[in-house]
Amino acid sequence: MLTLTENASTAVRDLTSRAGLPDSGGLRIAESEQQLGSFELALVPEAVPGDEVIDSSGATVFVSQQTSTLLSDLTLDADPSATGSPGFTLAPQQG
Question: Hey, what's the signal peptide range on this chain (predicted)?
Fold first, then answer.
């Protein structure tokens, strides 16, 4: 299952709060239909049926069913020094 660093959890909480999403909302990750091998991120009010729901330190991330397997051994991180919207990265999970 995809994991989140503390930086990523903080960034997701901040983004969902600023967007005024309900408690059921979060960041959704899905494979891009236009650009094979890349992912689309979107702030959404709730999960799509079939999404994997990841709750990390109060941050909610939804991963599309098709994308869940691709991200299962990765960690989502965010650059806390990025101005404006944080830059998210994916990296292999540590040990």
Answer: none
